[in-house]
Amino acid sequence: MGFYDEERNIETYVEMAEGLDGRELVDVLKKHLAPGSTVLELGMGPGKDLALLAEAFAATGSDRSQAFLHRYRRAHPDAELLFLDAVTLETEQRFDAIFSNKVLHHLSVGELRRSLQRQAAILNANGLVLHSFWFGEGAEENHGLRFTYYTDSTLTAVVVPEFAKVACVRYREIEEGVSLYLLLRRSSNSLPTPVR
Q1: Angle at CA of residue 167, ends 182 and 39, nearest 5°
Q2: Residue 51 sits in a domain of what CATH number?
Q3: Which of 22, 62, 110, 162 lies in the 20 to 30 Å Cα band around 74?
Q4: CB neighbours (10 Å) of residue 37?
Q5: Structural domain includes residue 191
Q6: How many domains are contained in the chain?
């Protein structure tokens, strides 16, 4: 059982994240993606960013925690939600963009590469990914969760050939410069990857 499979841990997380959302990141995506485009959020948690994404896009939420999915569905019974692991992404659906806010830092560097390869496979032509991370170096474990930190250069080094980098930018969240986001576009010259 994972950390976010227990109801008490979810409630602790929701309280800790009170007042925080990914509005700034969603605004970045709006500058690069047409209104009404399909967007998959990885690791939606309590769904704050999913609600923001749904204001402009056809948004689908996903999480590896059934508890988070059930919690959101109780309040939003018509929401489009998927039970997905962020590495394997076992779905046949395709999207114009994939978004996550401080989720993929729970993956190892190797898992992040595999995730990006799968993301390329489920993106439409010229699709975008926008993911945020904590800025720093190294990795640590807390409550059974891995936290991998990245600098601009170490994050850019993880990018797989299926993508072209659009931007890697540090931004203010809680404190100046503690966060960075990576915006990638699926390379138009990359061969389509079959969806598994």
Answers
A1: 55
A2: 3.40.50.150
A3: 22
A4: 19
A5: no
A6: 1
CA distances from 51 to 13, 54, 58, 180 (A): 18, 5, 11, 22
Residue burial 118-136, b: 16+ Cβ < 10 Å; e: rest: bbbbbbeeebbbbbbbebb
Phi/psi at 4 (5° precision): -90, 10
> CA 32, CA 55: separation in Å to the nearest integer?
15
First to last CA, the chain: 26
H or E element that contains 13: helix 7-16
CB count in 10 Å sphere of residue 1? 6
